[in-house]
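Standup, Tuesday
Yesterday: got the pipeline producing C-alpha coordinates again.
Today: sanity-check two examples.
Blockers: none.

Example 1:
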Amino acid sequence: MPLTARNKQLIVTGVMVVIIVVGAWLGFEQYKAVAAQQDKVTVAAEELQAAEQELADLKELSNTMDSMSVELNNVRSSLPAGEDISDLLANLEAIAVYSGVTFDSISVATSGEQTAIATTGEEVATPAGVNRINLAISVTGGYQNLKKYLHGIEQNLRIIDVNSISISEGGVYLLNMQTYYVE
Protein backbone atom coordinates (compact mmCIF):
# COMPACT_ATOMS: atom_id res chain seq x y z
CA MET A 1 0.00 0.00 0.00
CA PRO A 2 1.60 3.09 -1.19
CA LEU A 3 1.51 6.19 0.98
CA THR A 4 -0.43 8.97 -0.47
CA ALA A 5 0.20 12.59 0.33
CA ARG A 6 -2.88 12.65 2.45
CA ASN A 7 -1.74 9.62 4.46
CA LYS A 8 1.72 11.14 4.85
CA GLN A 9 0.15 14.32 6.07
CA LEU A 10 -2.00 12.37 8.55
CA ILE A 11 1.00 10.41 9.81
CA VAL A 12 3.09 13.57 10.21
CA THR A 13 0.20 15.29 11.99
CA GLY A 14 -0.31 12.27 14.24
CA VAL A 15 3.40 12.10 15.07
CA MET A 16 3.37 15.84 15.81
CA VAL A 17 0.33 15.44 18.04
CA VAL A 18 2.03 12.55 19.87
CA ILE A 19 5.22 14.62 20.24
CA ILE A 20 3.23 17.58 21.52
CA VAL A 21 1.27 15.40 23.98
CA VAL A 22 4.40 13.62 25.21
CA GLY A 23 6.24 16.95 25.41
CA ALA A 24 3.38 18.53 27.31
CA TRP A 25 3.22 15.58 29.66
CA LEU A 26 7.00 15.65 30.25
CA GLY A 27 6.89 19.45 30.61
CA PHE A 28 4.09 19.18 33.15
CA GLU A 29 6.08 16.56 35.08
CA GLN A 30 9.08 18.90 35.02
CA TYR A 31 6.84 21.78 36.12
CA LYS A 32 5.56 19.71 39.05
CA ALA A 33 9.15 18.80 40.01
CA VAL A 34 10.25 22.45 39.84
CA ALA A 35 7.19 23.54 41.83
CA ALA A 36 7.97 20.89 44.48
CA GLN A 37 11.58 22.13 44.63
CA GLN A 38 10.36 25.72 44.95
CA ASP A 39 8.13 24.65 47.84
CA LYS A 40 11.11 22.96 49.49
CA VAL A 41 13.23 26.08 48.97
CA THR A 42 10.46 28.25 50.46
CA VAL A 43 10.14 25.95 53.49
CA ALA A 44 13.94 25.87 53.90
CA ALA A 45 14.09 29.69 53.69
CA GLU A 46 11.37 29.99 56.33
CA GLU A 47 13.21 27.49 58.57
CA LEU A 48 16.44 29.44 58.07
CA GLN A 49 14.72 32.71 58.97
CA ALA A 50 13.19 31.09 62.07
CA ALA A 51 16.59 29.68 63.07
CA GLU A 52 18.24 33.08 62.58
CA GLN A 53 15.54 34.72 64.72
CA GLU A 54 16.01 32.06 67.39
CA LEU A 55 19.77 32.65 67.30
CA ALA A 56 19.22 36.40 67.69
CA ASP A 57 16.85 35.75 70.61
CA LEU A 58 19.41 33.44 72.22
CA LYS A 59 22.14 36.07 71.84
CA GLU A 60 19.85 38.64 73.45
CA LEU A 61 19.08 36.23 76.30
CA SER A 62 22.79 35.57 76.73
CA ASN A 63 23.48 39.31 76.96
CA THR A 64 20.61 39.72 79.41
CA MET A 65 21.93 36.84 81.49
CA ASP A 66 25.41 38.38 81.53
CA SER A 67 24.05 41.73 82.74
CA MET A 68 21.87 39.99 85.32
CA SER A 69 24.92 38.08 86.51
CA VAL A 70 26.68 41.40 87.13
CA GLU A 71 23.61 42.71 88.96
CA LEU A 72 23.41 39.50 91.02
CA ASN A 73 27.03 39.95 92.06
CA ASN A 74 26.22 43.53 93.09
CA VAL A 75 23.28 42.29 95.16
CA ARG A 76 25.45 39.62 96.74
CA SER A 77 27.93 42.34 97.69
CA SER A 78 25.11 44.48 99.06
CA LEU A 79 23.69 41.61 101.09
CA PRO A 80 26.62 39.70 102.57
CA ALA A 81 26.31 36.08 103.60
CA GLY A 82 26.09 36.06 107.39
CA GLU A 83 25.99 38.94 109.82
CA ASP A 84 29.64 39.97 109.35
CA ILE A 85 29.22 42.59 112.08
CA SER A 86 32.95 43.26 112.44
CA ASP A 87 33.23 44.20 108.75
CA LEU A 88 30.07 46.34 109.02
CA LEU A 89 31.45 48.25 112.01
CA ALA A 90 34.83 48.69 110.30
CA ASN A 91 33.06 50.19 107.24
CA LEU A 92 30.94 52.50 109.38
CA GLU A 93 34.02 53.63 111.32
CA ALA A 94 35.99 54.27 108.12
CA ILE A 95 33.12 56.39 106.81
CA ALA A 96 33.03 58.26 110.13
CA VAL A 97 36.75 58.99 110.03
CA TYR A 98 36.48 60.20 106.42
CA SER A 99 33.51 62.47 107.21
CA GLY A 100 34.92 63.91 110.44
CA VAL A 101 32.44 62.50 112.97
CA THR A 102 33.36 60.40 115.99
CA PHE A 103 31.44 57.52 117.50
CA ASP A 104 30.20 58.03 121.04
CA SER A 105 28.42 54.70 121.27
CA ILE A 106 27.24 51.83 119.10
CA SER A 107 24.47 49.36 119.82
CA VAL A 108 23.98 46.34 117.55
CA ALA A 109 20.99 44.02 117.73
CA THR A 110 20.21 41.20 115.34
CA SER A 111 16.59 40.42 114.72
CA GLY A 112 15.10 37.05 113.94
CA GLU A 113 11.97 38.71 112.64
CA GLN A 114 11.62 39.07 108.91
CA THR A 115 10.44 42.68 108.94
CA ALA A 116 11.98 46.02 108.13
CA ILE A 117 10.90 49.59 108.72
CA ALA A 118 9.75 51.23 105.49
CA THR A 119 10.10 54.94 104.82
CA THR A 120 6.47 55.36 105.91
CA GLY A 121 7.33 53.99 109.37
CA GLU A 122 5.41 50.77 108.75
CA GLU A 123 6.99 47.39 109.17
CA VAL A 124 7.37 45.53 105.89
CA ALA A 125 8.17 41.85 105.41
CA THR A 126 11.62 41.15 104.00
CA PRO A 127 12.19 38.31 101.53
CA ALA A 128 12.75 34.81 102.86
CA GLY A 129 16.34 34.20 103.89
CA VAL A 130 17.05 37.91 104.42
CA ASN A 131 17.65 38.96 108.02
CA ARG A 132 18.31 42.37 109.48
CA ILE A 133 20.66 44.00 111.93
CA ASN A 134 19.47 47.02 113.91
CA LEU A 135 22.06 49.65 114.70
CA ALA A 136 21.88 52.62 117.07
CA ILE A 137 24.91 54.86 116.66
CA SER A 138 25.65 58.03 118.59
CA VAL A 139 28.03 60.42 116.80
CA THR A 140 29.37 63.95 117.31
CA GLY A 141 30.98 66.25 114.81
CA GLY A 142 28.75 68.99 113.47
CA TYR A 143 25.94 69.16 110.93
CA GLN A 144 28.09 69.32 107.76
CA ASN A 145 30.13 66.33 108.92
CA LEU A 146 26.90 64.45 109.69
CA LYS A 147 25.75 65.14 106.13
CA LYS A 148 29.07 63.78 104.82
CA TYR A 149 28.64 60.71 107.04
CA LEU A 150 25.12 60.07 105.75
CA HIS A 151 26.34 60.53 102.17
CA GLY A 152 29.11 58.01 102.85
CA ILE A 153 26.56 55.52 104.19
CA GLU A 154 24.44 56.09 101.10
CA GLN A 155 27.42 55.43 98.81
CA ASN A 156 28.46 52.35 100.77
CA LEU A 157 28.12 49.08 98.86
CA ARG A 158 26.23 47.40 101.71
CA ILE A 159 22.55 48.32 101.99
CA ILE A 160 21.96 50.44 105.09
CA ASP A 161 18.62 52.09 105.83
CA VAL A 162 18.69 55.13 108.12
CA ASN A 163 15.33 54.99 109.93
CA SER A 164 15.68 58.04 112.15
CA ILE A 165 18.06 60.76 113.24
CA SER A 166 17.68 62.70 116.45
CA ILE A 167 19.84 65.40 117.99
CA SER A 168 20.47 66.02 121.63
CA GLU A 169 22.20 68.83 123.48
CA GLY A 170 25.86 69.17 122.78
CA GLY A 171 25.54 68.24 119.09
CA VAL A 172 25.21 64.50 119.65
CA TYR A 173 23.32 62.78 116.84
CA LEU A 174 21.58 59.45 117.38
CA LEU A 175 21.13 57.43 114.19
CA ASN A 176 18.85 54.40 114.11
CA MET A 177 19.69 52.22 111.12
CA GLN A 178 19.11 48.78 109.67
CA THR A 179 21.21 46.63 107.44
CA TYR A 180 20.53 43.23 105.97
CA TYR A 181 22.26 39.92 105.34
CA VAL A 182 21.43 36.52 103.93
CA GLU A 183 22.03 33.20 105.62
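Example 2:
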Amino acid sequence: MATFGKRLKDFALSADIISDQSFERIAQHTVTYLNKKLSPIEQIIIAVQYVKEGKPGLFGAWPKVNGPDTYWEHNIYNDDGTYYGHSSYVLVNNKPGWFVTREKNILNQSTDYVDLLGNYPIELGDRNESIPKFAAALGEEFKTSIIIPLRNEGSIYGIINFEFKEYIEPNEEWIKEFNLLAEAFQILYQCRKIYSMQCSATESIISTLGESNPQISIGTPFVVLFSPQDGCTDVKAEVQDVLDRYDNHFEVRNWQYAQNPGNIMQFVRENALKATLAVVYLSQEKDTRGEFVDNPNTLYEAGLLDGIKETQTTPLKAVILIREENSGTIPFDLQGNRIITVVRIGTDLKLNRDRLKNDLHNQLQAIEVNWQSKN
Protein backbone atom coordinates (compact mmCIF):
# COMPACT_ATOMS: atom_id res chain seq x y z
CA MET A 1 0.00 0.00 0.00
CA ALA A 2 1.34 3.42 -0.97
CA THR A 3 2.34 5.74 1.87
CA PHE A 4 1.07 9.30 2.25
CA GLY A 5 4.39 10.60 0.91
CA LYS A 6 4.16 8.45 -2.23
CA ARG A 7 0.55 9.48 -2.87
CA LEU A 8 1.43 13.15 -2.32
CA LYS A 9 4.32 12.98 -4.78
CA ASP A 10 2.11 11.25 -7.38
CA PHE A 11 -0.46 14.00 -6.91
CA ALA A 12 2.21 16.71 -7.25
CA LEU A 13 3.45 15.23 -10.53
CA SER A 14 -0.08 15.26 -11.96
CA ALA A 15 -1.19 18.69 -10.70
CA ASP A 16 -1.26 21.68 -13.06
CA ILE A 17 -2.57 24.42 -10.76
CA ILE A 18 -1.73 24.88 -7.08
CA SER A 19 -3.22 27.98 -5.48
CA ASP A 20 -2.19 29.39 -2.11
CA GLN A 21 -5.33 27.89 -0.60
CA SER A 22 -4.58 24.44 -2.08
CA PHE A 23 -0.99 24.60 -0.83
CA GLU A 24 -2.18 25.46 2.69
CA ARG A 25 -4.64 22.54 2.68
CA ILE A 26 -1.95 20.11 1.47
CA ALA A 27 0.44 21.31 4.18
CA GLN A 28 -2.25 20.88 6.82
CA HIS A 29 -2.98 17.33 5.62
CA THR A 30 0.75 16.64 5.93
CA VAL A 31 0.86 18.00 9.47
CA THR A 32 -2.18 15.89 10.44
CA TYR A 33 -0.55 12.78 8.96
CA LEU A 34 2.74 13.32 10.80
CA ASN A 35 0.96 14.08 14.08
CA LYS A 36 -1.00 10.85 13.79
CA LYS A 37 1.68 8.50 12.50
CA LEU A 38 4.93 9.83 13.99
CA SER A 39 4.97 12.57 16.62
CA PRO A 40 3.51 16.03 17.32
CA ILE A 41 4.99 18.33 14.67
CA GLU A 42 5.41 22.01 15.43
CA GLN A 43 5.73 23.30 11.87
CA ILE A 44 6.90 22.82 8.29
CA ILE A 45 9.05 25.58 6.81
CA ILE A 46 10.17 26.15 3.22
CA ALA A 47 13.08 28.54 2.75
CA VAL A 48 14.62 29.64 -0.55
CA GLN A 49 18.06 31.05 -1.22
CA TYR A 50 18.63 34.55 -2.60
CA VAL A 51 21.30 37.23 -2.82
CA LYS A 52 20.93 40.59 -1.09
CA GLU A 53 23.58 43.30 -1.18
CA GLY A 54 26.01 40.74 -2.55
CA LYS A 55 25.53 38.29 0.33
CA PRO A 56 23.82 34.87 0.03
CA GLY A 57 20.83 34.34 2.28
CA LEU A 58 17.64 32.41 2.96
CA PHE A 59 14.13 33.82 3.05
CA GLY A 60 11.02 32.10 4.34
CA ALA A 61 8.91 31.34 1.29
CA TRP A 62 6.30 29.53 3.42
CA PRO A 63 4.65 30.10 5.80
CA LYS A 64 4.54 33.89 5.73
CA VAL A 65 4.94 35.99 8.87
CA ASN A 66 2.26 38.54 9.83
CA GLY A 67 0.59 38.62 6.43
CA PRO A 68 0.83 37.28 2.87
CA ASP A 69 3.68 39.53 1.72
CA THR A 70 5.91 39.43 4.81
CA TYR A 71 9.01 37.22 4.73
CA TRP A 72 11.60 36.41 7.36
CA GLU A 73 15.15 36.32 6.07
CA HIS A 74 18.72 35.90 7.24
CA ASN A 75 22.22 35.63 5.79
CA ILE A 76 23.70 32.18 5.26
CA TYR A 77 26.91 33.15 7.04
CA ASN A 78 27.52 35.12 10.23
CA ASP A 79 29.99 37.99 10.18
CA ASP A 80 32.73 35.64 11.45
CA GLY A 81 32.18 33.25 8.52
CA THR A 82 30.33 30.56 10.48
CA TYR A 83 26.99 29.20 9.33
CA TYR A 84 23.81 30.86 10.54
CA GLY A 85 21.83 27.89 11.81
CA HIS A 86 21.22 24.36 10.57
CA SER A 87 19.21 25.38 7.48
CA SER A 88 22.14 27.35 6.04
CA TYR A 89 24.46 24.45 6.89
CA VAL A 90 22.29 21.97 4.93
CA LEU A 91 21.78 24.36 2.01
CA VAL A 92 25.49 24.90 1.45
CA ASN A 93 26.54 21.26 1.95
CA ASN A 94 23.58 19.84 -0.03
CA LYS A 95 22.87 16.87 2.25
CA PRO A 96 19.84 16.19 4.45
CA GLY A 97 20.19 16.36 8.22
CA TRP A 98 18.22 14.86 11.15
CA PHE A 99 19.35 17.10 13.99
CA VAL A 100 18.93 16.47 17.72
CA THR A 101 20.99 17.31 20.78
CA ARG A 102 23.24 14.75 22.40
CA GLU A 103 21.27 15.24 25.62
CA LYS A 104 17.93 14.78 23.74
CA ASN A 105 16.69 18.16 24.97
CA ILE A 106 15.47 21.36 23.25
CA LEU A 107 17.69 22.33 20.32
CA ASN A 108 17.84 25.99 21.24
CA GLN A 109 19.21 25.16 24.70
CA SER A 110 22.31 23.31 23.53
CA THR A 111 25.42 23.64 21.38
CA ASP A 112 26.15 19.91 21.19
CA TYR A 113 24.28 18.49 18.19
CA VAL A 114 24.12 15.15 16.42
CA ASP A 115 22.93 14.35 12.90
CA LEU A 116 21.25 10.96 13.18
CA LEU A 117 21.62 10.43 9.41
CA GLY A 118 25.40 10.58 9.73
CA ASN A 119 25.92 13.26 7.05
CA TYR A 120 27.21 15.88 9.52
CA PRO A 121 29.55 17.13 10.75
CA ILE A 122 31.51 17.46 7.51
CA GLU A 123 34.97 15.90 7.47
CA LEU A 124 37.71 18.45 6.81
CA GLY A 125 40.96 16.59 6.30
CA ASP A 126 42.00 15.14 9.62
CA ARG A 127 39.24 16.85 11.62
CA ASN A 128 35.49 17.37 11.67
CA GLU A 129 33.91 20.81 11.77
CA SER A 130 31.26 21.20 14.45
CA ILE A 131 27.57 21.42 13.61
CA PRO A 132 26.59 25.11 13.97
CA LYS A 133 24.27 26.36 16.68
CA PHE A 134 20.56 25.96 16.07
CA ALA A 135 18.81 29.17 14.99
CA ALA A 136 15.01 29.15 15.03
CA ALA A 137 13.20 30.96 12.22
CA LEU A 138 9.76 30.63 13.82
CA GLY A 139 9.37 29.34 17.38
CA GLU A 140 11.99 27.65 19.55
CA GLU A 141 10.63 24.64 21.45
CA PHE A 142 11.90 21.84 19.18
CA LYS A 143 13.79 18.65 19.96
CA THR A 144 14.07 17.27 16.42
CA SER A 145 14.74 19.21 13.22
CA ILE A 146 14.72 17.37 9.88
CA ILE A 147 16.08 19.48 7.01
CA ILE A 148 16.17 18.32 3.37
CA PRO A 149 17.50 20.27 0.35
CA LEU A 150 14.97 21.26 -2.32
CA ARG A 151 16.10 20.83 -5.92
CA ASN A 152 14.86 21.84 -9.35
CA GLU A 153 16.41 20.10 -12.37
CA GLY A 154 19.16 18.85 -10.06
CA SER A 155 20.10 22.29 -8.70
CA ILE A 156 19.43 23.13 -5.07
CA TYR A 157 17.29 26.24 -4.53
CA GLY A 158 16.22 25.95 -0.91
CA ILE A 159 15.33 23.66 1.99
CA ILE A 160 12.28 22.16 3.67
CA ASN A 161 12.36 21.86 7.46
CA PHE A 162 10.17 19.57 9.59
CA GLU A 163 10.38 20.58 13.26
CA PHE A 164 9.06 18.32 16.04
CA LYS A 165 8.42 18.93 19.71
CA GLU A 166 9.76 15.53 20.74
CA TYR A 167 13.03 13.65 20.28
CA ILE A 168 12.63 11.27 17.31
CA GLU A 169 15.06 8.69 16.01
CA PRO A 170 15.03 7.81 12.31
CA ASN A 171 14.46 4.43 10.71
CA GLU A 172 14.67 3.39 7.08
CA GLU A 173 10.92 3.70 6.53
CA TRP A 174 10.69 7.26 7.81
CA ILE A 175 13.87 8.41 6.05
CA LYS A 176 12.30 7.29 2.77
CA GLU A 177 8.97 8.93 3.68
CA PHE A 178 10.54 12.31 4.46
CA ASN A 179 12.45 12.22 1.19
CA LEU A 180 9.15 11.59 -0.66
CA LEU A 181 7.51 14.48 1.21
CA ALA A 182 10.39 16.78 0.27
CA GLU A 183 10.20 15.74 -3.39
CA ALA A 184 6.45 16.38 -3.38
CA PHE A 185 6.72 19.79 -1.77
CA GLN A 186 9.49 20.96 -4.09
CA ILE A 187 7.15 20.26 -7.04
CA LEU A 188 4.10 21.76 -5.32
CA TYR A 189 6.01 24.90 -4.33
CA GLN A 190 7.09 25.50 -7.94
CA CYS A 191 3.51 24.94 -9.20
CA ARG A 192 2.19 27.35 -6.59
CA LYS A 193 4.77 29.97 -7.48
CA ILE A 194 4.04 29.75 -11.21
CA TYR A 195 0.27 29.96 -10.66
CA SER A 196 0.69 32.99 -8.41
CA MET A 197 2.88 34.69 -11.02
CA GLN A 198 0.36 33.96 -13.77
CA CYS A 199 -2.50 35.44 -11.75
CA SER A 200 -0.55 38.55 -10.77
CA ALA A 201 0.78 39.12 -14.28
CA THR A 202 -2.71 38.77 -15.73
CA GLU A 203 -4.12 41.31 -13.28
CA SER A 204 -1.23 43.69 -13.93
CA ILE A 205 -1.72 43.56 -17.69
CA ILE A 206 -5.49 43.98 -17.36
CA SER A 207 -4.87 47.12 -15.31
CA THR A 208 -3.05 48.70 -18.28
CA LEU A 209 -6.10 48.38 -20.54
CA GLY A 210 -7.66 51.50 -19.07
CA GLU A 211 -4.60 53.66 -19.63
CA SER A 212 -5.07 56.31 -22.31
CA ASN A 213 -1.61 55.80 -23.82
CA PRO A 214 0.15 52.86 -22.12
CA GLN A 215 3.09 52.78 -24.55
CA ILE A 216 4.42 56.14 -23.42
CA SER A 217 7.28 55.73 -20.96
CA ILE A 218 7.71 58.69 -18.64
CA GLY A 219 11.14 59.53 -17.26
CA THR A 220 14.42 57.67 -17.69
CA PRO A 221 14.14 54.42 -19.69
CA PHE A 222 15.31 51.33 -17.83
CA VAL A 223 16.25 47.72 -18.40
CA VAL A 224 15.19 44.80 -16.19
CA LEU A 225 17.79 42.06 -15.68
CA PHE A 226 16.85 38.53 -14.60
CA SER A 227 19.23 35.64 -13.87
CA PRO A 228 19.23 32.43 -11.80
CA GLN A 229 20.69 32.63 -8.33
CA ASP A 230 22.83 29.62 -9.33
CA GLY A 231 23.81 31.14 -12.69
CA CYS A 232 27.52 31.47 -13.45
CA THR A 233 28.89 34.58 -11.79
CA ASP A 234 31.35 35.29 -14.62
CA VAL A 235 28.49 35.73 -17.12
CA LYS A 236 26.37 37.80 -14.74
CA ALA A 237 29.31 40.10 -14.01
CA GLU A 238 30.06 40.70 -17.72
CA VAL A 239 26.41 41.34 -18.57
CA GLN A 240 26.10 43.83 -15.72
CA ASP A 241 29.33 45.52 -16.85
CA VAL A 242 28.08 45.97 -20.43
CA LEU A 243 24.74 47.36 -19.29
CA ASP A 244 26.44 49.73 -16.85
CA ARG A 245 28.34 51.25 -19.77
CA TYR A 246 25.02 52.51 -21.12
CA ASP A 247 24.25 54.45 -17.95
CA ASN A 248 23.81 57.66 -19.94
CA HIS A 249 21.01 55.95 -21.88
CA PHE A 250 19.14 53.83 -19.34
CA GLU A 251 18.99 52.58 -15.77
CA VAL A 252 19.48 48.88 -14.95
CA ARG A 253 17.15 47.22 -12.44
CA ASN A 254 18.48 43.82 -11.38
CA TRP A 255 15.97 41.34 -9.93
CA GLN A 256 18.60 39.84 -7.61
CA TYR A 257 19.06 43.17 -5.87
CA ALA A 258 15.33 43.70 -5.31
CA GLN A 259 14.39 44.76 -1.78
CA ASN A 260 11.86 41.96 -1.40
CA PRO A 261 13.45 38.87 -3.02
CA GLY A 262 10.47 36.65 -2.31
CA ASN A 263 7.87 38.68 -4.17
CA ILE A 264 8.82 38.47 -7.83
CA MET A 265 5.41 39.69 -8.97
CA GLN A 266 5.89 42.91 -7.01
CA PHE A 267 9.10 43.39 -9.00
CA VAL A 268 7.25 42.63 -12.25
CA ARG A 269 4.47 45.08 -11.45
CA GLU A 270 6.83 47.86 -10.45
CA ASN A 271 9.49 47.32 -13.11
CA ALA A 272 8.94 44.80 -15.92
CA LEU A 273 5.60 46.30 -16.98
CA LYS A 274 7.26 49.70 -17.35
CA ALA A 275 10.67 48.67 -18.74
CA THR A 276 11.84 49.36 -22.28
CA LEU A 277 14.07 46.28 -22.50
CA ALA A 278 14.53 42.99 -20.63
CA VAL A 279 17.73 40.94 -20.47
CA VAL A 280 17.45 37.37 -19.15
CA TYR A 281 20.36 35.00 -18.46
CA LEU A 282 18.69 31.59 -18.45
CA SER A 283 21.39 29.02 -17.76
CA GLN A 284 22.78 27.34 -14.69
CA GLU A 285 25.36 24.57 -14.45
CA LYS A 286 24.23 20.96 -14.05
CA ASP A 287 25.92 18.48 -11.74
CA THR A 288 28.00 17.32 -14.73
CA ARG A 289 30.78 19.82 -15.37
CA GLY A 290 30.48 21.60 -18.70
CA GLU A 291 26.75 20.93 -19.11
CA PHE A 292 24.05 23.51 -18.48
CA VAL A 293 20.28 23.69 -18.19
CA ASP A 294 17.78 26.52 -18.42
CA ASN A 295 16.67 27.41 -14.90
CA PRO A 296 12.90 26.67 -14.74
CA ASN A 297 12.09 29.80 -12.73
CA THR A 298 14.05 32.14 -15.00
CA LEU A 299 12.66 30.35 -18.07
CA TYR A 300 9.17 31.12 -16.85
CA GLU A 301 10.11 34.74 -16.21
CA ALA A 302 11.37 34.95 -19.80
CA GLY A 303 8.06 33.58 -21.05
CA LEU A 304 6.19 36.08 -18.90
CA LEU A 305 8.25 38.96 -20.29
CA ASP A 306 7.75 37.70 -23.83
CA GLY A 307 3.98 37.66 -23.24
CA ILE A 308 4.07 41.21 -21.87
CA LYS A 309 6.01 42.34 -24.95
CA GLU A 310 3.51 40.70 -27.31
CA THR A 311 0.54 42.54 -25.76
CA GLN A 312 1.95 45.80 -27.18
CA THR A 313 0.28 47.66 -24.32
CA THR A 314 3.50 48.36 -22.38
CA PRO A 315 6.79 50.12 -23.25
CA LEU A 316 8.64 46.76 -23.45
CA LYS A 317 10.21 46.61 -26.93
CA ALA A 318 12.49 43.56 -26.78
CA VAL A 319 13.65 40.63 -24.67
CA ILE A 320 17.29 39.52 -24.99
CA LEU A 321 17.95 35.95 -23.87
CA ILE A 322 21.43 34.74 -22.89
CA ARG A 323 22.14 30.98 -22.77
CA GLU A 324 25.15 28.75 -22.34
CA GLU A 325 26.20 26.82 -25.45
CA ASN A 326 25.43 23.40 -23.93
CA SER A 327 21.96 24.13 -22.58
CA GLY A 328 19.79 21.91 -24.76
CA THR A 329 16.97 23.18 -26.95
CA ILE A 330 15.21 26.39 -26.03
CA PRO A 331 11.39 26.19 -25.81
CA PHE A 332 9.69 26.86 -29.12
CA ASP A 333 7.67 29.82 -27.87
CA LEU A 334 10.87 31.72 -26.97
CA GLN A 335 12.78 31.08 -30.18
CA GLY A 336 11.55 34.32 -31.76
CA ASN A 337 13.50 36.44 -29.27
CA ARG A 338 17.04 37.73 -29.60
CA ILE A 339 19.33 35.00 -28.25
CA ILE A 340 23.00 35.32 -27.29
CA THR A 341 24.99 32.10 -26.93
CA VAL A 342 27.67 32.02 -24.22
CA VAL A 343 30.86 30.41 -25.54
CA ARG A 344 33.47 28.80 -23.27
CA ILE A 345 37.01 27.83 -24.26
CA GLY A 346 39.28 24.93 -23.34
CA THR A 347 39.05 22.19 -20.75
CA ASP A 348 38.76 24.77 -17.96
CA LEU A 349 35.65 26.23 -19.65
CA LYS A 350 36.98 29.76 -19.56
CA LEU A 351 34.38 32.32 -20.58
CA ASN A 352 34.97 34.07 -23.92
CA ARG A 353 34.37 37.46 -22.36
CA ASP A 354 35.08 39.53 -25.46
CA ARG A 355 32.57 37.63 -27.56
CA LEU A 356 29.85 37.89 -24.90
CA LYS A 357 30.42 41.62 -24.51
CA ASN A 358 30.46 42.24 -28.26
CA ASP A 359 27.33 40.17 -28.85
CA LEU A 360 25.39 41.97 -26.14
CA HIS A 361 26.65 45.37 -27.30
CA ASN A 362 25.58 44.59 -30.88
CA GLN A 363 22.14 43.48 -29.75
CA LEU A 364 21.66 46.68 -27.78
CA GLN A 365 22.74 48.76 -30.76
CA ALA A 366 20.41 46.88 -33.09
CA ILE A 367 17.31 47.50 -30.99
CA GLU A 368 15.58 50.59 -32.31
CA VAL A 369 14.76 52.30 -29.07
CA ASN A 370 14.89 56.03 -28.56
CA TRP A 371 16.92 56.01 -25.37
CA GLN A 372 16.50 59.17 -23.39
CA SER A 373 19.53 60.67 -21.69
CA LYS A 374 19.60 60.89 -17.94
CA ASN A 375 19.00 64.27 -16.43
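Quick observation on example 2: Residues 214-218, 369-375 have pLDDT under 50 and may be disordered. The first helix runs from residue 4 to 14.
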